[in-house]
Design goal:
Helices cover 55% and strands 9% of the residues. By secondary structure, it is of the alpha+beta class. The chain has a single domain, classed as Orthogonal Bundle (Cytochrome p450). GO terms for molecular function: alkane 1-monooxygenase activity; arachidonate monooxygenase activity; heme binding; iron ion binding.
Length: 507
Amino acid sequence: MGFFRLSHITNVFSISGFVQVISLLGLLLLLYKAVQYYLHRQWLLKCLREFPSTPSHWLFGNHIKDQDLQQILLWVEKFPSACSRWFWGNKAHAVIYDPDYMKVILGRSDPKPTRTYSFFTPWIGYGLLILEGKKWFQHRKILTPAFHYDILKPYVGIIADSVHVMLDKWEQLIGQDCPLEIHQHISLMTLEIIMKSAFSYQGSVQLDEEAKSYIKAVEVLTQRIYSRVRNAFHQSNIFYNLSSNGRSFYHACQIAHEHTDRMISMRKAQLKNEGELEKVRKKRLLDFLDILLFAQTEDGKSLSDEDLHAEVDTFMFEGHDTTASGISWIFYALATNPEHQQKCREEVQNVLGDGTSVSWNHLSQMPYTTMCIKEALRLYPPVPAIGRELSTPVTFPDGRSLPKGFLITLSFYGLHHNPRLWPNPEVFDPSRFAPDAAKHSYAFLPFSGGRRNCIGKQFAMNELKVAVALTLLRFELLPDPTRVPVLMTRTVLKSKNGIYLHLKKLK
């Protein structure tokens, strides 16, 4: 019995000692992290001493939920060229909205912030949006021929047909004499254009319930990514995967992947037909998906399934969602500026007549409409901001500098609303884009700039012009004063309460 009691006491002391050691190690780790946090914060403060900002909380930063764009306007007014922005704790960016600053950063080859953009990879993989270095250059080179003007020319007819389908739907709906939320309809229309032009799809997308499911999934995905970037507790994959947001994100990923997988499978099945295959082989230039399916890398290998799916997922998203945002806001801008809307309509009537036929050549004959489109894109840039992580130190034209590893937000929204560049920036004034109007080459960047500018910008501009022209021939656009859109950033510029317009059928 004595031996048992002695053994029991020894075990108790052993357990107690082990607990004490673990507690001490935990305390030392906590102390180490606190010192690390403090030193990193001091480094950030030192780096940002030349980039002032509004007061921020040491833990919660100066982020206000859904107030990003309002904050940017305040900073642009108060702090010339650039400022600092604190998200939480030690997460801080330098925010730039000056054309000379933009020119410096976009002229470099800095990567996108790894951590932030990694949140996209479960959805769109490593396509052009996220790739860096040699592989990005290789994919860009492979895909550039898909946007040659000889490829884009016949797409004008596809765009026009899809716009007419949407306008026919609108004619039936406006009989209810109530405002129409236009963004959802426009999203389906731009998705149809992408699927028919770039992916050789034959069906009617705008009447397809599966297409609506994809649109809804994209909406969920952009919302979840935006909120995750701003949530300190969701930075860890483990915690995020266990959260309700994480579960809905991955469910939406599955829906999006099923949609794009179906496009790839359908096209592969079509190409097994000798007639279709021979037709493709005779083409001098291939459509987007066919380029990917027939592409070979420098070492003679085909693209991997992973690379193929990543580029398809990327282009399916970017090719419809950003364009849908652009068209929706252009329609809203024209609705709230009826005198410019009417001038556009008269120009379009002179060029297109009744609009039954729209060709590539018509698109260059609408200068005033193009000016209005650009002014709307200035006010409402579809992609309000992008990020970069400095691979080497940078010094800006005014002498301010930032070290390697620092995160930079390029705010296109801030740039486009900078009163030093655009007097009365909130006023819709198409004359800013008159042929003889002087402006900095980096003052207007709706499609970004530099070597990583939007590969589909010409395709997108064609889409915007056709959509605006055909819509103005059939409808007068009127705002709904009871539901003024509330701008919000969700990767792409959206409205928190939708974009509602009254549509008046023209005789």
